[in-house]
């Protein structure tokens, strides 16, 4: 199902009463990419002329403590001709998930996390003097500006500080992991940093990048494995009230949109999950998500956020796209 609310109509409603010049800004993102896979979608991304590409984890499948092997996989991904074209065409940002972190479903127990972090930042061409190079964890923030529009991109590290998740002995009954109310997820230093990033932010849009889902409650890895941390994130949004918050997530090898209403926020919180770039779950996979809006998309995909703006009037359309830029699902956001 595609939401039957054409973006041109929305733009007309927002902008017809004046002669403001309408600008268009596009951000693309994705996750879960086998570095050796010959069939990629970089040419499709480039055709859309995004302002930026955002990696949301599993940027390669490292799964190793051998940093020479890890680097060779990053090199394979980076040296691909079509990816080189993408690098030349737009800015690139990113964060890791578990496989490029170095261990499946891993957290703070992974012994090579500092060495792995350095390789991630090199892959992303993060400058040698960037603050993230000198602190623990890979969390980062950026302000993307375009024709008067300010987008704050906040990339959260859900691996470096995270406690080991608790396996459920009866995993098939409800969840593969048990909730850990007292467990650490982001770590206190990252929480303090995040609050500072949101306090008095003048950005028009706030994009939060998370390797694993935040709003949904899948049976696999998620913020819900640490329910107090998930609640803390919601409470921080209510406290700071950033303009137009949107969560971007990956990991799950399918794509979907989710929405939650939070008491104390006058607008809904949306999450856009896009995964995977090179592989997906079985087409017969069933995934329950009471927060989902629209359909579950089990096709190789990437995410696109189109923003039409004229001064402070902003319209946002999110699209799940695939090969040949097919649009599988879309939703227009109204804040």
Overall description:
- With 335 residues, the chain is α/β, with parallel strands linked by helices.
- It has one domain: 4-Layer Sandwich (Purple Acid Phosphatase, chain A, domain 2), CATH 3.60.21.70.
- The protein has eight helices and 15 strands.
- The chain has helices spanning 7-15, 42-47, 67-78, 81-89, 98-101, 113-123, 188-198, 227-240; strands spanning 23-30, 52-56, 91-95, 140-146, 149-155, 166-167, 177-178, 205-210, 245-249, 255-260, 269-273, 292-297, 302-310, 313-321, 327-333.
- Strand 8 (205-210), helix 8 and strand 9 form a beta-alpha-beta unit.
- The radius of gyration is 19 Å and the shape is globular.
- It starts with 6 loop residues before the first helix and ends with a strand.
- Mean pLDDT is 93; it is low at 1-14.
What is the fold's blueprint, element by element?
Elements: H1 7-15, E1 23-30, H2 42-47, E2 52-56, H3 67-78, H4 81-89, E3 91-95, H5 98-101, H6 113-123, E4 140-146, E5 149-155, E6 166-167, E7 177-178, H7 188-198, E8 205-210, H8 227-240, E9 245-249, E10 255-260, E11 269-273, E12 292-297, E13 302-310, E14 313-321, E15 327-333
Helix pairs in contact: 3-6
